[in-house]
Amino acid sequence: MPRILIVEDDTDINNSTAGYLRRQGCECVQAFSGTEGRLLWQAGGIDLLLVDLMLPGLSGSELIGEIRRTSRTPAIVLSAKTELADKVELLGLGADDYLTKPYQLEELWARILVQLRHASTAPTGTSLRYRDWVLDPEEMTLTAAGRLVDLTAHEFKIVELLAGRPKRVFTKQQIYEAVWQERYAVEDKTITVHISNIRAKLRPSGTDSYIQTVWGIGFKLAEEA
Fold it and tell me: What angle do CA 202, 205, 208 make, to 5 degrees?
């Protein structure tokens, strides 16, 4: 029985979401402010978070930022923002997924199942090295030129996929289906946004150029000079 923390200040949305998830067999913990959500998170035992951005007290972005310093627990953002720039920002916060309000509970449940499946099948094994990168699949951490890079679960899996086959060019479809484990039904900006976020996080280490765009095809790692 997965234990889900719902941090949403709209009482109707919070209660209806919790009621639906309980009918799916989940245990739900409800918070109506960011501060309350932080306290319930610190109590432990949470398998997944649903977090609204606009919260009284501690904001949703601040809450996710605090959690990401110590944990890779999946977090899905619930937001009324619909613009691409806003979605890029949401992913940059450390969220694993986002859902635009108003949302269908069935779609939310499908996204929750994906995140729980990823968490339960987190890779284990020895470290993976590529040039100045060191990846730890068990801890899901990336060290670039001696710097620890704070990646979301999806971002780490993209880097791990590329580093595992550094000479191969991966299409957006291949990356999406390998990382999300879902069928790539339509062309969208998901992979482009994630690659952009990864490069931004790698920039302080000077290794952002490792990921190359192969125009018209996809992405690959740059060969060592």
Answer: 40
